[in-house]
Amino acid sequence: MSLQTTSTPADFEALAQTDLSGTTCVVLDILRATSSMITALANGAEQILPVATIEEALAAKAEHPEALLCGERNGLRITAAQTGGTEFDLGNSPREYTAEMVAGKTLITTTTNGTRALRACVNAEHTLVASFLNLTATTDYLRTAKPSRLVIVCGGTYEEAALEDTLAAGAIAESVWDLFDECDDASQAARLLFASAPVEETLPQAKNAQRLLSLPDLAEDVEHCLQSDRYPFTATVAANGMIQRNA
Description:
Elements: E1 2-6, H1 9-15, E2 23-28, H2 33-42, E3 47-50, H3 54-63, E4 68-73, E5 76-77, H4 80-83, H5 99-102, E6 106-110, H6 114-120, E7 126-130, H7 135-145, E8 149-154, H8 163-176, E9 182-183, H9 185-196, H10 199-202, H11 207-213, H12 220-226, E10 235-237, E11 243-245
């Protein structure tokens, strides 16, 4: 029974080259990809297809013309100038994913880090999408499933570790610590950080949070993503690559 945490894109890209059979991955991109995905599912989105690149998103749209195109580059909604003519329907603010916009819809999304992290886990036995918004539901699932190998995958910010993802990883590690015989130092460090740093006070100090807080249209995203256990469900990646809500 082993627990591992990855902190940066370099880590999850290396993870993609390893044998993930028998592995459960939990992907975190607190500010904001996985928080937006959980919010979308809570508001009735049918399924979400994460893709790594804009080109893949446009190709998926051709296959699913009824789907909404969602995502960001450098934190902002993808525009026609970046795609060669196609405006994305939504960006990466969880507050955009209202029931009026997403209920009953398939979403295709690409973000700077979060969807890349999800794609890195494509060969895992199980992949969960997590955030503070559904943290307890996720840890309850893990405590019941008791995976023999758990990898907590942090999306990070650009090519660096992200404080907000490390805090969430620490919260998960703390909740399942007793299940594992072997835990790496990254998991221990995340757990100790979570234990010593109140999330409500610490997360707004993160580099990514500071950037969002400086932008009037996006500042409220930080408070939304800080909400604990707003949604009592898990989300998993199905065999067809779609993220779906579980009871």
